[in-house]
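Hey,

The postdoc asked me to send both predictions to you directly instead of through the lab channel. I've kept everything plain text so nothing gets mangled by the mail client. Protein one:
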Amino acid sequence: MRILVTGGAGFIGSHVADLLAERGHEPLLLDALLPQAHGSQEPPRWSAGHELVIGDVRDPELLARLLPGVDAVCHQSAMVGHGVDPSDAPQYASHNDYGTAVLLAAMYEAGIGRLVLAGSMVVYGEGRYECATHGVVRPGSRRAEEIEAGQFEPPCPRCGRPLTGLLVPEDAPLDPRSTYAATKLAQEHLATAWARQTGGTVWSLRYHNVYGPRMPRDTPYAGVASIFRSALTRGEAPRVLEDGRQRRDFVHVTDVAAANLLALEAACGSAGTGELEAVNVCSGQPHTVGELAVTLAAAMGGPEPVVAGGARPADVRHVVADPAKAREVLGFRAATSFEDGVAAFATDELREPVTATR
């Protein structure tokens, strides 16, 4: 298959491209080399073996030239991460949502009906919780005064009692709580509408906390693993917010690439569904943010993490994924353990320092 990989020179996209080529497919990479993710406007060395076009997914004329002969699109390009502050919103909406709309329109014009979308667990907002009295409940946003008092666990919204965390399935209510999260959910809505109008096939792979080689470094647009790694490289202690006990699912980038391959092959083996199929892409091994900091610091021989309290605006407490659907519909199982992945991440090659621009 010839597959257009948007964001193909980026962190996840480059691993997808490598795996596609390894399995005998023909990846065509499109990347704008945004400064939020790339320390240089020169293509990274790991893209040298692929066909790479430097350009913007928001350019319909460029897409019209690239899409003929393409069998499917793997849409990885996006502005990611927590960002700097709400003034980032126009750029997030432009790159993530307008860019997706332009891509979907161009796919329609080119007669391409198969899309794999880089989704995100951020669309869930808070994870899934159960109250001993009221069953499964949806806690509201945590208040600043609660965070300042060290009350990090969201209480039952009906009785105020402690909650038990559960695995989040794909049919959980969607409640984005940041600009980035809102744009990722909008991407899914746009792709769903496109699929229903065209009869196309869409897989939205809801990535959990992805880490591994080629992550961008020294940027507010990177994940927490990269932020901890950058601090340790500078000889500083990783700064862990809240009490460090917030749970996440850290999934290695090579596993994420494998999930994309499975979804692309499933999409191209389909006659078209006219619907979007959302799938959690996770390790199935939840760990706390504090565990990540401690494990990475030990692997790098750096100072012990500092638990700083507080939280960033719109941060959620726990998001732990249910991996069952990915196993059932894609045959996906993560192969990299937390221990092995984090140990390797201590010395993995990262990208050059990047520039946070508005």
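Protein two:
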Amino acid sequence: MIEATISVGDAENLVLLLGAKDQHLKQIRSTIPAKISTRDGKIVVQGDDDAVIQATAVLEELRAKLRRDGSLDSDQVSQTLHQVTNGELLPQATPIGVRPGHAVHPRTPGQAEYVQAIRDHSLVFCTGPAGTGKTYLAVATAVEALRDQRIHKIVLVRPAVEAGESLGYLPGDLQAKINPYLRPLLDALRDMMDYDQVRRYMEEDVIEVVPLAYMRGRTLNNSFIILDEAQNTTVSQMKMFLTRMGEESQVVVSGDTSQMDLPPHTKSGLIDALSRLRNIEGFARITLTGADIVRHRLVQEIVRAYEEGPKKKR
């Protein structure tokens, strides 16, 4: 079972979306076998993967119609249900084949849109909270591209930014010090390949997992390059990274702008790049939300609690 949460706004919009006496909600429930409830002014959808994806797609589309038209009627709800259940509104991202007999499936419309953007563009920026699959889906798509021989090398990159700890106080040599920063990328990779295969590819330099600082002065051709935790880059680091892109290469940049560990008054290279590059051809930006979180149900609650801030005592 998975869960998705949809923010609606004020109580009036919630009533308009769900209909008088929950008329629209009843239409959705009668067609899609998902548990749909409200909590703190938000809509919570629970159930198996397909049901949650479809119900979320219906509600997101109805919310967009409500914003545009200011009202909803039962005919619009019926039409939207028909479109979603027949696959007309869900982004059509095919499963990501990471090895024979094993595929990674986007589990929300937002994730499907992200995967499709990676397949359609040479440069993709994805922002969103923890648990939305930003890194995992990018790594899976890179593994698929390597398996299909569309690229010759995967390069996984992270900035080694100190988040409350000093590298100098960590035990071991330089490699031991930076390994904790690279571990999430390695974990995703090992979910998709056998351990021996990962080790062999890394020994042969087919897969490289490196700190951002090690990218300076390089040009990467025929490569799939992923920059993770990009919110912790400076403007100059982001420029340096993006200009490493060579012929027949693809770049995915992911980050969470709500979790920056940069020194005070330092502008994030991710935020800067999103503004600078928005009109460049071949560039795509995807924004994932709490509705795309597919980790434990509590992760959605945690993200929402931090977004809303501490509640005042009465």
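Summary for protein two, as requested: The radius of gyration is 21 Å.

Thanks,
C.
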